Amino acid sequence: QVQLVESGGGLVQAGGSLSVSCAASGSIFSINTMGWYRQAPGKQRELVAAITSGGSTNYADSVKGRFTISRDNAKKTVYLQMDSLEPDDTAVYYCRAAANMLSLKILRPGFGSWGQGTQVTVSS
């Protein structure tokens, strides 16, 4: 079992920056890929960014050039730096960890672990 604890987020004006982080504990030997999903009210949960233990990254088109994902393997922590934030970035951001990128994207029980979520609100 993997536990994910998120921190960061909050309220910021459009154009501003925020960062969120996620620390993993428990059966961390099973984790290769970590990432961030977000879910806005009335919308489906979507993948924002992901990173493998080797440093390969994957970004949603909507955040490319604005968000940066990174990880500290020694600390088992993944970070998401969000710059040039827009009101459409407002959502609950969820950390996710899985054995590989494919599993990270399969949103069914048994394919990965979720954090509790942290709110990011961007005002216009």
Outline:
With 124 residues, the chain is mainly β. It has one helix at 101-105, and strands spanning 2-8, 10-13, 18-26, 33-39, 46-52, 57-59, 67-72, 77-82, 91-98, 113-114, 118-123. It is built from 1 helix and 11 strands, in the order E-E-E-E-E-E-E-E-E-H-E-E.
Between the first and last Cα atoms, what is the distance in angstroms?
40 Å
Shape: globular
Q: How many helical stretches?
A: 1
- Percent helix, as a range, is under 10%
What is the number of strand segments? 11
Sketch the topology as an H/E string, one letter per element. EEEEEEEEEHEE
Q: Which regions contain 5 or more consecutive residues with pLDDT less than 50? A: none
Radius of gyration: 13 Å
The structure class reads: mainly beta
Average pLDDT rating:
95
Q: How is the main sheet built?
A: 7 strands, mixed
Relative strand content: over 45%
